Amino acid sequence: MADSSHQLPLTDLKITPTAWVAKADVPGFKRDEITVEIEDVKLGKVLRVRGQKNNSGWEPETLTVRERTLANFSRSYYLSGTTFDVNGEF
């Protein structure tokens, strides 16, 4: 059986002369479980989208046996040649 706790969200990316628009499907995640960041690196900028969710509903340290894991993902996109300001919305 595949490990579904590390599946990447399906993402569409549209690049125009003035914008990069990304739309990602993250079913089952709440807004506060998703992080979107832009990081400056040597060759430009990197867009990082991360999510982390506790599937069991209980805190990990209170469990005697843990078979359901944290669901998490991380996607990164190098924004090559980006010279415009970066902003976003959820």
Automatic annotation (TrEMBL):
SHSP domain segment(s): 1-90
Entry superkingdom: Eukaryota
Family matches, as Pfam families: HSP20 (PF00011)
InterPro entries: A-crystallin/Hsp20_dom, HSP20-like_chaperone
Family label: Belongs to the small heat shock protein (HSP20) family.
Entry protein name: SHSP domain-containing protein
Organism of this sequence: Corchorus capsularis (Jute)
